[in-house]
Amino acid sequence: MKRSLLSVAVALSLSATSQSFAARNDLPDLGTAAVNTLSMDREMQYGDIYMRVIRGQAPVLYDPLLAQYISELGNNLVAHASDVHTPFYFFMLQNDEINAFAFFGGHVAVHTGLFLYADSESEMASVLAHEISHVTQRHLARSMEAQSRSAPLTLAGVLGAILLTVAAPQAGMAALMGTQALSTQSRINFTRQNEQEADRIGMRVMVASGYDPEAAASFFGKLAAKYRYATKMPPMLLTHPIPESRVSEARDRANQYPHMHIAPNLNFQLAKARIQVRFSSYSAQTALAMFEDQLKNNSYAIKEAALYGQALALFQLNKHDKAEKIIDELRKKDPDNLFYLDTKTDLLTAKKDYQQAIDLLSSQRKYRPTSLVINTNLANVYLENKQADKAIPILEQMMYDDKNNLLPIQMLNDAYKQLGDKAQQFYTNAQLHALRADYRGAIDQLNFSYREATGRPLLIARIEAQLRQFRDAEEQMKRFQN
């Protein structure tokens, strides 16, 4: 059966959505230690646990181009932030709703819907800088400390409710109401204090990073106007309320900085076009009509991004020759652009011209050996060409470089399946289960792997070590639940 990198990424992003993430309130209880003694080590621990829960329940998007884009944008902002105590990890959720949220351990989630409403990279940066500031100012920990002064609480009730609130506002707010920790008014006031601080520090971070200070007011102003009379608010407006005063305060802050004219950013516009075609509720035909209308009326931000969107939509509609003609023209002007390279690889793979795709990616890999996009595409082409043995070392290195990325693990599982290596297949399945907080499933997979690993002492040693690690992690989860 034909497999493609796109189909693998989409399958992974949707595999955990049989039940709505927003409708479920089954996060693990995270212990009963005193809130005011929460250390950075514990914050990192909680962040890892919650990230695993999200992977198991939410439509995390593992598209390599978008992952690389959002990570580079986010880390550029972090590089200009103060009070950074943790590494940051930026990831995307495939969801048309407008939202972003941050939680312990430097984790920042961005809904794909943000790209549908943001018109510039500066507007996107204003949202990310705000969320980064929530992390650097330890607002979750401070919220718990404030609540602990009003009532004796456990981390289970407060942390679980707060984390659920930022991820799934309606369910989380209901949980917070049930804690009876503070009066409704005092909770709102403390939230506003956090929001004001994140607004202020976030603008400082985005300006230091080279973005337009007016973007924050323009983006939130657009949202406030759009939903002023709406009966159903998007998640971002539930967790980040926008009274008129907040928009005017953002404008006042922006006026304190020199006016900046920033040209449209190509990579942002390419990422937006990619989401519009591949990861939104738009049909391919609707997306194609939209981009063709932009090109006809010169209503695009950047022409190359509109052409790229047109090519992607044509590819989705199996009009490969037309798509390839556009991509080839774009690559003549910008041959190293990863967005164009990715689509060219998809087109060559669709034509089963595997060797040309391998040669193209291998030549690029000489100059960018750690590129997530190049390595993912090259490993995928090797798998398509039944050369799993060549894909495996690339995927293993990718796993080592980014332990949060499920895509290379899933592809590695496919590679071992192609080779008929059941022991390694079960072993990689165990890693997938563990990254989704399913330690019982991971241990079962390791036991299957152990039975298949007869005569392979090195693999047996790895399995035994992993079994101990997963059993310890399972016990830790149980302790957090008590």
Description of the molecule:
The chain has 482 residues and is mainly α. The protein has a domain at 5-255. Helix content is 67%, strand content 3%. It has a four-stranded mixed sheet, sandwiched between helices. Helix 10 packs antiparallel against helix 12, helix 15 (303-316) runs antiparallel to helix 16 and helix 20 (388-401) runs antiparallel to helix 21 (406-419). The longest helix is centred in the middle third of the chain and has 25 residues, at 184-208. The radius of gyration is 23 Å and the shape is flat. The two termini are 46 Å apart. Residues 6-35 and 169-190 have low confidence and may be disordered. Keywords: Hydrolase, Metal-binding, Metalloprotease, Periplasm, Protease, Signal, Zinc. InterPro entries: Mito/Outer_Membr_Metalloprot, Peptidase_M48, Protease_BepA, TPR-like_helical_dom_sf. Residues 66-253 form the Peptidase M48 domain.
Give the low-confidence spans. 6-35, 169-190
Q: Evaluate the radius of gyration.
A: 23 Å
Number of strands: 4
Report mean pLDDT, rounded to a whole number.
82
Q: What percent of residues adopt helix (DSSP H or I)?
A: 55-70%
Which outline best applies? flat
Q: Helix/strand-derived class? A: mainly alpha
Pattern of helices and strands:
HHEHEEEHHHHHHHHHHHHHHHHHHHHH
Strand order, largest beta sheet = 1-2-4-3
* Main sheet properties: 4 strands, mixed
H/I helix tally:
24
Distance between the termini: 46 Å
